[in-house]
Specification:
By secondary structure, this protein is mostly helical. The protein contains one helix and no strands. The N and C termini lie far apart (83 Å).
Length: 68
């Protein structure tokens, strides 16, 4: 008759980490789906992912000086 071995804490921790990662991934997928749905309906404007306010960091009146 086989005996049942107790799971180690390391294995329990690994399994929990995998489960949490899957949940985060699923939530990201759901959020992306909702965003695509909103954009298709014309409710959300497209913004650059790096600059949420659309600011590119340029200063008005500042130009590029060539030849330096």
């Amino acid at each position: 008759m086989a005996t049942k071995r107790q799971q180690t804490m390391a294995k329990i921790t690994r399994e929990r980490a995998v489960k949490e990662k899957r949940e985060r991934k699923l939530e990201k997928k759901r959020a992306a789906k909702e965003e695509r749905k909103a954009q298709a309906a014309g409710l959300a404007p497209l913004l650059d992912a790096h600059e949420p306010d659309g600011d590119d960091g340029a200063v008005p009146g500042e130009g590029v000086v060539t030849g330096l």
